[in-house]
């Protein structure tokens, strides 16, 4: 079996983009029909799926080989975020240097540091999280600075 050509890979990326676009449109229609039927309750499973699709779109944007594909995936992620927010979700996107919060974040990695002012602060965001109604549904996965002295306690 030979390696795929760049054209074949680009075609596959286009196929995935179309699939994700159709799925997001379908999810939006489902959510709109629930809202039209007077359903005031937040649909947490729908928001979790929208969040996952948004994360996948952002990953595709970060790894896209062309500016056109990057722009398309970024636009798709923006549309999915608007759907999330419009249906009661909040993206948890901590910034580097923010204090670590166990309520909305999960420490997926530890980054050693000798700077005590950085201890227990976010070094990098690995994956954004999701809150619904003030409740953390998917914690943001982050790398956390820890000083050598605090790790031995």
Task: Summarize the structure in short.
This protein is of the alpha+beta class. It has helices at 6-36, 44-63, 67-86, 148-151, and strands at 89-92, 105-113, 122-127, 129-132, 135-138, 140-147.
Number of DSSP helical runs:
4
Determine the strand fraction and express it as a percent band. 15-25%
- Computed CA radius of gyration, to the nearest angstrom: 19 Å
Structural class: alpha+beta
Distance between the termini: 53 Å
Q: What's the count of strands?
A: 6
**Shape descriptor:** flat
**In percent, how helical is the residue content?**
40-55%
Low-pLDDT segments, ≥5 res: none
Biggest sheet features: 3 strands, antiparallel
Average residue pLDDT = 86
Strand order of the largest sheet: 1-4-5
| H-E string | HHHEEEEEEH
Question: What is the fold's blueprint, element by element?
Answer:
Elements: H1 6-36, H2 44-63, H3 67-86, E1 89-92, E2 105-113, E3 122-127, E4 129-132, E5 135-138, E6 140-147, H4 148-151
Parallel strand pairs: 2-6
Antiparallel strand pairs: 1-4, 3-6, 4-5
Explain what this protein looks like in three dimensions.
- The chain has 153 residues and is of the alpha+beta class.
- The protein is 49% helix and 23% strand.
- The protein contains four helices and six strands.
- The strands form two sheets. Strands 1-4-5 form a three-stranded antiparallel β-sheet. A three-stranded mixed β-sheet has the order 2-6-3.
- The longest helix is centred in the first third of the chain and has 31 residues, at 6-36.
């Amino acid at each position: 079996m030979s390696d795929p050509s760049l054209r074949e890979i680009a075609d596959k990326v286009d196929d995935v983009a179309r699939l994700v676009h159709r799925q997001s449109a379908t999810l939006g229609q489902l959510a709109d029909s629930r809202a039209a039927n007077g359903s005031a309750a937040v649909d947490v499973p729908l928001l979790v799926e929208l969040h996952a699709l948004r994360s996948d779109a952002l990953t595709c944007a970060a790894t896209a080989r062309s500016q056109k594909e990057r722009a398309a995936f970024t636009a798709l992620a923006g549309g999915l975020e608007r759907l999330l927010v419009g249906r009661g979700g909040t993206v948890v996107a901590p910034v580097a240097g923010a204090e670590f919060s166990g309520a909305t974040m999960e420490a997926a990695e530890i980054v050693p540091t000798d700077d005590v002012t950085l201890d227990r602060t976010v070094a990098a965001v690995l994956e954004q999280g999701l809150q619904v109604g003030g409740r953390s549904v998917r914690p943001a996965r982050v790398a956390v600075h820890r000083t050598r002295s605090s790790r031995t306690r």
